[in-house]
Structure formats: structure tokens, C-alpha cells
Amino acid sequence: MVPPRPSPPPDPAGRLKGTAVHFLSQVFDWFGDTANWSGPNGIPQLFVNQLKLSLAVVVAALVVGGGIGVILGHTGRGGLVAVNAANSARAIPTLALLTLFAIQPSISLKWSGFLASFLALLILAIPPILTNTYVGMREVDADVRDAARAMGLTGLQVFGRVEAPLAMPFVMAGFRTASIEVVATSTLAAYVSYADLGTFVISGLDSHDTVEAFCGAVLVAVTAALVALFLGAVQRVLTPPPLRRRVRLGRAGRRAALDG
Q1: Is there a domain that residue 18 lies in?
Q2: What band does 33 get if pLDDT is binned at 50, 70 and 90?
Q3: Which of 38, 70, 93, 183 sits most deeply, having the most CB atoms within 10 A of its CB?
Q4: How many independent structural domains does the chain possess?
């Protein structure tokens, strides 16, 4: 009688690989399901909702934070206090603010959670815009301002023709940072019933559906990356050509120093 062959030892690596392949196949199936691409809870509509919320937040933050930064940077008064206060606000967790606003009926019931999400994200978006705008205004060389005034330019003309163009790279850097943070953090709006891409993440976590949660996270990451690339291109366009050349020369100098 031939003795039975011993069973092969378990292969943890192979089992892990099989699990990963199975998970990825489920991810592809989820993205291929037409039900996830149609209706009020489909990917296109939730994508639009997330962009609407993010755009409203960053525009309001640009008006508030940018306006304060321009005034303080132009006058050079009270800037340090305002910037430090704004940066201190970044230490407040957005989820805690969202919860605080959500338990206020007069806020949470407005536009299906839009207002609560808007206010929480606005507090997140103001600090980088205010700080960068203030720094950009203060970085304008005083000799350049004096030369502009000596040429007969009024205070408003100095701001529009000299200060604003030179400060624009700093302003756009703050706007870009705020936009990426808002797009990525706006997924929390699903906690207060605002339907955006975060709905997939929250719903997946609540139902222990790791595939749905993962796909929602991928959609949010792709959206944030697209926003970053778009605003990076806008920043290059709005940066005055002499400053662009200065940046390129600075990078070339750093590369040459490293090569040497």
C-alpha cells in the first residue's frame, strides 16, 4: 500500500497575492458597475457636488483671508497677530468643527449639510491664504514701491501694478494649498449628510465594505491631484515672466551646486 503524500506546506505569500488580486478585481468590477455612474448618488454627480462645495469654500476664503492679508501686508500693521491667530485655527480638528456645527439645527438643516460643511472647511482654508498673501505683500521690495510712487502712481495704482503682480506667486501658492486641503477634507461632509465623493468612503466604512471605501478614497485622491495640477498651471500663467525666469535660474543654480 502506497503511503499518502504529505500535503504541501501553506504558502502565505501566495495566499496574500491571491487575496490582493481578488481585491483588485473587485475594485475594477466596482468601477465597471454602471449603477455607480448614474443617478443622484453616481460618481459624476457626487464629483460635481464635491467641486461645488470646495469652490465655494476656497472663493470665500480668498475673499476673507486674501482681503485681510492684502490690507495688513500693504499697511504693515497687525500682520503678525493676525497671521498667528489664523495659523492657530489650523490646530482645531475639522471633524470637531463639523460636529459642532452639525448639532446646531439652524446650521445643520441648511441645504442638506452644505452650510455646516462650508463653515468647517472655511476655517481650514483661511490660514494658508491669509499667511501667504501677507508674506507676499511684505516681500515686495520697499525700493520698488518708492520708485513707483516717485513715478506718480497713486496708492491704488501701486497695489494693482506693482504689489499685486509681485505677490501673486505667494497668493497662488496659498490658494493652491488651501484648495487641495479642502478637496481632500471635504469627504468629511458626508458625516452631515452632504452627498459628495466622501459618501462612498463613509458608506463603505459603515457597512464594512472595504472595496467601496477604497474606491471612494481613490476618487478623492484623483480629484485632489487634478486640482493640484490645474492650479499649478494657473500659478505659472499668473506669475510674471521675470519671476518665472528667476525661479528657473534658481533651480538651475541649485542643480549645478549639487552636481559640483
Answers
A1: no
A2: very high
A3: 183
A4: 1
In a domain, 164, yes or no: yes
Q: Please write the tens of the pLDDT for every residue from 86-133.
A: 777 777 788 888 888 888 877 766 667 889 899 999 999 999 999 999
CB 119 within 8 A of CB 97: yes
- What's the mean pLDDT in 68-97? 81
pLDDT for 18: 67
What mean pLDDT is predicted for residues 208-221? 94
Q: Report the CATH number that the domain containing residue 149 is assigned in CATH.
A: 1.10.3720.10
C-alpha cell at 163: 504689489
Give yes or no for residue 172 having a pLDDT over 70: yes
Which residues constitute the domain of residue 120? 42-241
35 is a domain residue: no
CA dihedral 128, 192, 101, 94 (to 10 degrees): -30
Cell (9 digits) for 97: 468643527
The DSSP string of 95-150 is: HHHHHHHHT-HHHHTGGGGHHHHHHHHHHHHHHHHHHHHHHHHHTS-HHHHHHHHH
Cβ neighbours for 212, distance < 8 A, ≥ 6 positions apart? 30, 200, 203, 204
